Amino acid sequence: MNRPPSFPPPAATGNAGSAAGRVGERAADQPMVPGAASLGASAGAPSRRNAIPIGNPLMNRDNTTASAAHPSQALMNPTDSNYPPNPAADKNTSDAEFALPPAFPPRNPLETPSAPTHAPGAIPTALPPSFPAASLEFPPDEPPIPKNQPRPVAKTRVCHPWRRFFLVFLAAVLVAALAVVFWGLFLVQRVESQIGRVDALSGAAATPGTTWLIAGSDSREGLINDGTEGERSDSILLVHQAPGGQAAMVSLPRDTYTEIPGKGAAKLNAAFSWGGAPLLVQSVEGLTGLTVNHYVQVGMSGVSRIVDAVGGVNVCWDQSFHDRFTALDWQAGCHDVDGHTALLFSRMRYSDPTGDIGRTKRQRLVISAVLKKAVSREVLVSPSRQLALADAGATALSIDRETKTWDVARLVLAMRRASGDGMQGVPPIASVGYNPGHGVGSTVLLDREKAPVFFEKLTAGTLSPADFQPSATRGVSYTPAQS
């Protein structure tokens, strides 16, 4: 029999009797289990069969005897004072002598009971307290799933028809909104690339609110023959947005007698002929006390294209007339007119008894009609008309270099608001046939007392429709100027 390397070879001398005696002595030193003597052959002398050491390390946890590699390993106990055992004493020992009765369970390594917990020879029916029986029951909320039963499938959420309709409607609205935004940006970029630029602003200190100056430039392009030549400012319109939100459109008669910087007193439209847009801006600022923030110049030929781009406009005038210069025959009432007729209607003045005052009123009527038609359903739902309007406006307008396209859009909104609120007209007038001499001719003289108060209210945003000049000229005779 081969022995483990930890055991030294047996002594050369000795006999089985002396080895048996030593085994008996060692067995006598082990703690004895009461009643174990009845299992031995002799109760008088202790034997290895009768000696049952407590805490046999070869017992498994499930009360079964573990087989040792060598019979001498069955008595290994680190707590024994005679440990390690003498291999010579175990030379003649058989493996059967070390078999322990199954009635005695192994000692719990954590507990050292002084006596067995059951009668000798009885088989324990339960495990020690340190080894509780494993529970085979499942929690009540987690029952076992049979192998043949399919696993439950998650329920698919049902989409209600109204919810689906709402999602589709919301998606359509978002797509339409994005399309409108991108289309608007496209039109703005198109206008920005075509619109003209001029040097106009004076750089004077700003006044409260925002002021736009619109000048209708007449280059005499053969549209009409009214006896005048050269480029003139045919119409002058001042649009002011007060800090409080009030918007007003004030027409300044082209023949208004005022001071022209560096030129002396003359008609207002002469400033445009002498110095172009910059001199006209300075003259208007000196007359009104307002600083011009934005300048817009409209070619009179462009007015015809703008009206045609929106599909024509409807204008009303309660007087019938026939103008010998334009050959325009107008019957009192409302009429749908195209671009060319609208241009003749807004420029006619010799057949009007109120002269230049009546002409400024007709010009504002055409402007209001164009603004109303531009935001009508007929134009808003037609991309082709929107594109035509953008192209016509871009080619007809010229703005100062500091003004942006968005500022022109703000101007349009301010004009619509002023037209809707009735805040439009001319400032108080003292005379429509004033002749100062010095070859100036007949001019329009503003009221020296009421006009300054009028422009102060315009700046503060406290104007009322009663502050404008009435249509009647208070019986003052009007002689149109020919220069």
Write the layout of secondary structure elements.
Elements: H1 16-29, H2 161-194, E1 196-198, E2 210-218, E3 232-241, E4 247-252, E5 257-260, E6 264-267, H3 270-288, E7 294-299, H4 300-309, E8 313-317, E9 321-323, E10 328-330, E11 333-337, H5 339-347, H6 356-374, H7 377-380, H8 383-396, E12 397-400, H9 405-421, E13 424-425, E14 429-434, E15 443-446, H10 450-460
Parallel strand pairs: 1-12, 2-7, 4-13
Antiparallel strand pairs: 2-3, 3-4, 5-6, 7-12, 8-11, 9-10, 14-15
Helix pairs in contact: 2-8, 4-5, 4-8, 5-6
Question: Your description of this structure?
Answer:
This is Transcriptional regulator. Residues 74-83 have a biased composition (Polar residues). Keywords: Membrane, Transmembrane, Transmembrane helix. InterPro entries: LytR/CpsA/Psr_CW_biosynth, LytR_CpsA_psr. Helix 4 crosses helix 5 (339-347) and helix 5 runs antiparallel to helix 6 (356-374). The longest helix is centred in the middle third of the chain and has 34 residues, at 161-194. The chain has ten helices and 15 strands. It has two domains: 1-124, no CATH class; 195-467, 3-Layer(aba) Sandwich (Aminopeptidase), CATH 3.40.630.190. The chain starts with 15 loop residues before the first helix and ends in a 23-residue tail after the last helix. With 483 residues, the chain is α+β, with helices and mostly antiparallel strands. The strands form five sheets. Strands 1-12-7-2-3-4-13 form a seven-stranded mixed beta sheet, sandwiched between helices. A two-stranded antiparallel sheet has the order 5-6.
